[in-house]
Amino acid sequence: xxxxxxxxYWPMGVTEFQWLSPLGYISVWSSEETxxxxxxxxxxxxxIAKPYHALAREVIRQLNAYFIGKLQTFNLPLATEGTAFQKxxxxxxxxxxxxxxxxxxxxxxxxxxxxxxxxxxxxxGSNPLLIVIPCHRVVGSSGxxxxxxxxxxxxxxxxxLERQFVVSIKSTLF
Length: 174
Hints:
- There is one protein chain.
- The protein contains 5 helices and 6 strands; from the N terminus they run E-E-E-E-H-H-E-H-H-E-H.
- The chain is of the alpha+beta class and 174 residues long.
- A 4-stranded antiparallel β-sheet has the order 1-2-3-4, covered by helices on one side.
């Protein structure tokens, strides 16, 4: 795995860096205390530099562990900005087990809003922390892969990655 990153300073102590994952560059915005945003970056960064603070290095360590099947749940200090409804949906998404999927309507029922499937989908579409808040685990009611900010192909690959390691873990127990 390549540990190249691009770093760019933002106001208020927030920096952006880009890390080359197996699925392309990932952009991460964080301060020294919290992670604010994680998205896939399209194209190549203009330059590569190492992250300058400990939290940025920890984000990379945890993403590396995730992509090689050694981490199923992230443990990072997060600073999410959203409505109370969005945060409730994102919390429910975090409870979808690694290697499994749930539908938008499943999540609506989980948060006590079975009639809010479209609003749930909208909240998931606003997820600022891809992979860490695992919205790639949310599918249509028929099981079909639906929208993902990182692209449907990446969503498919993330689900396959997790299922591969769940199967590997189970098969080594017996």
